[in-house]
Amino acid sequence: MSRQHIPVRAKNIVLIGFMGVGKTTIGKMVADKLYRDFIDVDIEIERRYDKTIPEIFAQHGEGYFREIERNTVIDICDNKQCNIVSLGGGAFKQEAIREKCLDSCLVLFLDLSWDRWKERMDLLIENRPVLHNKSVDEVQEIFDERQAIYAEHNARVTTDNLNPEEVADYIVEILKLGWELHQPLS
């Protein structure tokens, strides 16, 4: 797949990472700081299909959800620029999504250690169908499996011991530095 020519400053910034790592919270803050629109793919899917993610899973299954997730992400990548985009925790497992995001966007991996994530687990399970009826060990298997998938990115941001505001400030700082380095010489 050939790389699309999109100026660096116009590229969507895509946030990836395990569910509950803070992609939505941090993404909204980054969008505000950079005067960009924020798109949470899960919320966009709920808006487009007029159903919650748990309802889509219950009525149509994970396979159907992954298909509409893929179509939604590819549509955003093809038709929108200058956005901060938060992907669902499992979206990057799909090769088509990974390729499209890496081809046309800047992909930032929000990395949170298992121990820190586990502290949030009870708050997260209800709205994440993938975690329903899973033991802690089963959830850790999913977490560990996805770490390898998240390894394909443009930058990794370790979020342990940082609050969302600190992570957002750091992301803005590295983006602005990157944009300066990619500024064409006149």
From TrEMBL:
This protein's pathway: Metabolic intermediate biosynthesis; chorismate biosynthesis; chorismate from D-erythrose 4-phosphate and phosphoenolpyruvate: step 5/7
Cofactor(s) listed: Mg(2+)
Gene3D superfamilies referenced in this protein's UniProt entry, alphabetically: P-loop containing nucleotide triphosphate hydrolases
Domain of life of the source: Bacteria
UniProt keyword annotation of Nucleotide-binding present: yes
Subcellular locations according to the entry: Cytoplasm
Top-level EC class as recorded in UniProt: transferase
Residues at which ATP binds: G20, V21, G22, K23, T24, T25, R128
UniProtKB keywords: Amino-acid biosynthesis, Aromatic amino acid biosynthesis, ATP-binding, Cytoplasm, Kinase, Magnesium, Metal-binding, Nucleotide-binding, Transferase
SUPFAM superfamilies (alphabetical): P-loop containing nucleoside triphosphate hydrolases
Keyword Ligase: no
Co-factor note (free text): Binds 1 Mg(2+) ion per subunit.
Family: Belongs to the shikimate kinase family.
Descriptive protein name: Shikimate kinase
Organism: Terribacillus saccharophilus
